[in-house]
Write a structure and sequence with these properties.
Chain B: Keywords: ATP-binding, Nucleotide-binding. The complex is a heterotrimer of chains A (368), B (246) and C (309). By secondary structure, chain A is mainly alpha-helical. Chain A is built from 14 helices and four strands. A four-stranded mixed β-sheet of chain A has the order 2-1-3-4, sandwiched between helices. In chain A, α3 links the parallel β1 and β2. Chain A is elongated. Chain A starts with a helix and ends in a 6-residue tail after the last helix. In chain B, 36% of the residues lie in helices and 27% in strands. The N and C termini of chain B lie far apart (39 Å). Chain B contains nine helices and ten strands. In chain B, α3 crosses α4 and α5 runs parallel beside α6. Chain B has a six-stranded mixed β-sheet with strand order 6-7-8-3-9-10, with helices on both faces. Chain B has a four-stranded antiparallel β-sheet with strand order 2-1-4-5. By secondary structure, chain C is α/β, with parallel strands linked by helices. Chain C has a six-stranded mixed β-sheet, sandwiched between helices. Classes of the chains: A mainly alpha (368), B alpha/beta (246), C alpha/beta (309). Chains in contact: A-C, B-C. The interface between B and C is large, with 38 and 34 residues.
């Protein structure tokens, strides 16, 4: 037992004395979360908007106030001619504009129909599309307010609405995905590299030629990375809650249990890779290309699995991260309990058992 | 008056207040086999890098093959060859591919590469191995081939970094035969090593200790001066007092 | 009583395509300092790995400290001290941490067997808190030896412990081995340096996976069948070429600043000097000398090559 503890302590020395490992371990989650959370997210915030209000009546002012109140737009300019809009666009001071015709309010009251024009900077189509959706949503929201219940006087494009909602959900979906990705990288890559490193250094030879049982070598390698990965998982949860304002709806305990299970799956994979390779580079390449890529593609958080060709959907079933992703999404974002994720958990457990037994069986007590 | 191909005057390289190479001065004659010895960390590698035009000296003067180490690094590189035990040839290229690659790197013309590589393969007795990957050759052959490639472009000086460590005694003899032959043809051979038995083959030897050249003479005279039986003994007597490790 | 025995050990790699160890047999007696001497790729490391139970031989049997390398591999792992070719240390752990780690792994403490490593350890103790990666080759070698000795093994297996280490450290290392031998530890050490042969009690010369000779260094040198001459002149390369062309010369190799020459029957130093002077060489010196291990090695190799072809 003492041997095991000393060995585990040694592993921690390795991790804490190697800046690169530390960076991968704890820098990666931060970067990933920030990257996915802000940069890659299709949600748009703080867009500069120009208002060209020819009406200046009650209705137009009310809509303008609604836009001002939303966190998506910053309104710091009003223009008085139509051509000014283009000037502002060209200067890059604004991404979109909202134009009210002179008789906006009166038209609305008199005929029940009024027009607004939304102009968006099409050079960034994604943002433009989103912006148009937001403004449309705000306008239709306003319509709801002024319309008596049950009487719809304007055609509302329901597709727009759905898009609007989806943007909001989409930004959350990546969090379970990033979790799966990071745990995969940290556990699989770092574990395999740390074992292969001992092979390269020749220390594995000495360890094998010692009374220390080979299986204990594996355990002592796995335990530190299990602990570190859980710390990592906690870090991601914190970042999600406090930086990205995500609400954890389900049981945190369940999240930790499921994550521990997934970490063990990844560790087994790492052990398997370390068995198959003899150089750190090969181990790293195999874990990154062989594990990270499938995780990115087949988990379903970057692109929906349903849209993929059937063979890809079939392959996705053997990617452990896919099941973990489903579990976390259900528990964390939807607030579902164990009774809804037991099937996925069972799949993950069986995968782990198979992988771990192969890894243990394949672990060589000799060099060849 | 013999022609000098390397002239060093108080050559110095310092990193902060650490003098890796501390005012070394020596000359190497054309066609000489010059042994450059020192323990790990004595400054051998740093000195050799300056002479090969890979790093600038902090102070002092040196010319290599007639070119200034400060201003004419590119010309130096064209006129020297380099071989080390650790890296010399691409293991996953064939014998011929290696020759033509390195020949090409040094700007040897295609026609000439073809002619000379045939000649070289004949001399090395590698006729049946030209299509083999270098990685499949025995260590001894690799080293002989590596040396031949290093002097393929007929450099004025060839730098050898611990060239024969680990090979069997017979192959080592064959290797030294090749070095002698190259020197006889006028190529200056600059050998850095910490294998003392390698040093015994050199015409003259300099021994570096802690960044300085502590001794410079022929192996015979050095042994006489230190009343030692072997270069090993000479080196031991000189380096025992060394302060710095690696 | 033998501490290490190998009988007809054969080992191939790459599905039998590469023959690494070819029918090797020798014994190391208890308390002996035995040297396995040969160049890189001769099969030394494979032999060490078979003895340390890290590799399985294709055929043949071997035992260490009385235990069979296949059946009793656990017992061997408990009782040998092993230093692999690359000094196996954790570069990012300090001297003290490395030592403590290996002590614990071997189920002991640094203090328990301190007297055994004391002499060696005290030399590196001042750098106790320095990381192994920042040590000089000689210091790494000492630390690795301490780690291999920490559990007081009966048999010490050292695979090329002096490779890449400077002359001063090499000498100190052999001094340490002598002291360990005096404490009754059996030592099997491999080296590519021929000059280290004379420091062993008995040696085995190995080349291309085959043992060429096993004996004491003196006896191996003594069995050199012909007279050997060291010859030199002003122009060593020309002398080499000329002597090789001389019909009376049996063999001629460069050997440091001299040429080592053997003659066909009936010729001696005089003939060499006369011939060389006749070829225009200045200051020709030819002396009969005692052969060294390296001369013997070359001779054994040439004899093998001759019988093969």
């Amino acid at each position: 037992m003492k041997q095991l503890l000393v060995f585990i302590r040694k592993e921690f020395f390795h991790v804490f004395r190697d800046r690169r490992t530390l960076l991968i371990m704890f820098g990666l989650p931060v970067v990933q979360i920030v990257l996915f959370g802000f940069a890659l997210s299709s949600e748009v915030k703080n867009i500069d908007i120009i208002i060209y209000d020819n009406a200046k009546d009650v209705n137009s002012t009310q809509i303008i106030n609604k836009i001002k109140a939303s966190s998506y737009f910053i309104m710091d300019k009003e223009v008085t001619t139509y051509s000014d809009i283009e000037k502002e666009f060209k200067k890059g001071d604004a991404k979109c504009a909202l134009v009210f015709p002179a008789n906006f309010g009166s038209d609305l009251v008199a005929t029940g129909k009024a027009q607004v024009q939304i102009i968006a900077d099409g050079s960034d189509p994604n943002i433009a599309k989103t912006v148009v959706n937001y403004i449309t949503a705000i306008v239709s929201d306003y319509q709801q307010e002024i319309n008596p219940a049950g009487q719809m006087q304007y055609k509302i494009n329901p597709e727009m609405r759905m898009l609007y909602n989806e943007e909001q959900n989409g930004s959350l979906n990546f969090i379970p995905g990033v979790m799966a990705l990071i745990l995969m990288i940290v556990c699989t890559a770092l574990t395999s590299v740390s074992i292969v490193k001992e092979k390269e250094l020749g220390t594995m030879e000495v360890l094998l030629v010692s009374p220390f049982k080979p299986v204990l070598v594996l355990i002592s390698k796995a335990v530190p990375y299990l602990i570190l990965s859980l710390a990592n998982f906690t870090l991601i949860l914190f970042l999600s809650v406090y930086v990205l304002d995500v609400e954890i709806k389900g049981s945190i305990f369940l999240l930790f249990v499921e994550s521990t299970l997934f970490i063990i799956t990844c560790l087994s994979l790492g052990l398997l890779i370390s068995n198959a390779t003899n150089s750190q580079q090969a181990a790293l390449l195999l874990s990154l290309m062989g594990m990270m890529l499938p995780t990115l593609i087949f988990t379903g958080f970057l692109m929906p699995l349903e849209n993929m060709p059937v063979p890809f959907q079939v392959i996705s079933n053997i990617v452990p991260a896919r099941w973990y992703y489903l579990i976390i999404k259900s528990v964390m974002l939807k607030g579902l309990g164990f009774e809804f994720v037991w099937k996925e958990t069972l799949v993950l457990i069986s995968m782990t058992v198979v992988l771990l037994s192969i890894a243990l069986k394949k672990f060589k007590i000799r060099l060849q | 008056m013999e022609e000098k191909v390397i002239i060093c005057k108080e050559l110095t390289k310092s990193f902060g207040d650490f003098y890796a190479v501390n005012k070394i001065s020596f000359d190497v004659n054309k066609g000489e086999i010059f042994g450059f010895l020192g323990a790990n960390g004595a400054g051998k590698t740093t000195a050799m890098r300056m002479l090969c035009g890979l790093s600038f000296p902090t102070s002092g003067e040196a010319t290599v093959a007639g070119f200034n180490v400060y201003k004419q690094q590119d010309s130096i590189k064209k006129n020297i060859g380099y071989m080390s035990q650790k890296f010399s040839l691409y293991e996953n290229l064939t014998v011929l591919e290696n020759i033509s690659f390195f020949g090409g790197v040094y700007g040897v013309r295609k026609k000439e590469i073809k002619e000379r590589s045939e000649e070289l393969i004949q001399t090395l007795g590698l006729q049946n191995e030209t299509k083999k990957l270098v990685g499949e050759l025995p260590l001894g052959w690799k080293q002989k081939l590596a040396f031949s490639v290093a002097i393929f472009h007929k450099p004025k000086i060839v730098f050898l970094d611990e060239p024969t460590g680990g090979v069997d005694p017979l192959t080592r003899r064959q290797f030294w035969d090749m070095i002698y032959k190259a020197a006889d043809e006028g190529i200056t051979v600059f050998v850095t090593t910490h294998y003392m038995d390698e040093a015994e083959y050199c015409n003259r030897i300099s021994i570096m200790v802690d960044g300085r050249v502590e001794a410079l003479d022929s192996p015979g005279k050095l042994k006489e001066r230190f009343s030692a039986d072997s270069m090993d003994e000479v080196f031991y007597k000189l380096a025992r007092g060394a302060k710095r490790g690696e | 009583m033998n501490s290490v025995t190998l009988q007809n050990i054969k080992k191939t790699y790459d599905k039998g395509n590469v023959l690494a160890v070819d029918d090797v047999s020798f014994e190391v007696k208890e308390g002996e300092l035995f040297g396995l001497i040969g160049p890189d790729g001769a099969g030394k490391t494979s032999i060490f790995r078979i003895l340390t139970t890290l590799l399985l031989a294709d055929s043949g049997s071997a035992s260490v400290a009385g235990f069979d390398v296949v059946k009793d591999y656990r017992a061997i792992r408990n009782s040998v001290g092993y230093m692999p070719g690359k000094f196996s240390l954790y570069q990012d752990l300090t001297i003290r941490e490395n030592l403590q780690f290996f002590a614990t792994v071997f189920g002991t403490t640094v203090e328990a067997n301190y007297d055994l490593i004391k002499d060696i350890y005290e030399q590196i103790k001042p750098f106790n808190n320095r990381r192994a990666g920042k040590l000089s080759g000689g210091m790494k070698q000492k630390l690795a030896l301490c780690c291999a000795l920490i559990h007081k093994p009966n048999v010490l297996l050292l695979d090329e412990p002096t490779t890449g280490v400077d002359v001063v450290s090499r000498r100190e290392f052999w001094e340490m081995l002598k002291k360990l031998k005096m404490q009754g530890i059996t030592i099997l050490v491999s080296t590519p340096y021929m000059d280290e042969a004379s420091l062993c009690e008995r040696i085995a010369l190995i080349q291309n996976g085959k043992i060429m000779s096993v004996d004491t260094p003196d006896k191996i040198i003594g069995s050199y069948p012909v007279d050997l001459y060291a010859v030199k002149s002003e122009n060593i390369y020309k002398l080499l070429v000329d002597l090789r062309a001389y019909g009376e010369v049996a063999s001629c190799y460069a050997f440091g600043e001299f040429l080592h020459v053997t003659m066909k029957e009936g010729s001696g130093a005089e003939q060499i000097e006369k011939y060389a002077s006749g070829k225009g060489h200045q200051h020709v010196v030819a002396n009969k000398i005692e052969p060294g291990i390296e001369d013997s090695f070359i001779r054994l190799m040439s004899v093998r090559d001759a019988t093969k072809s």
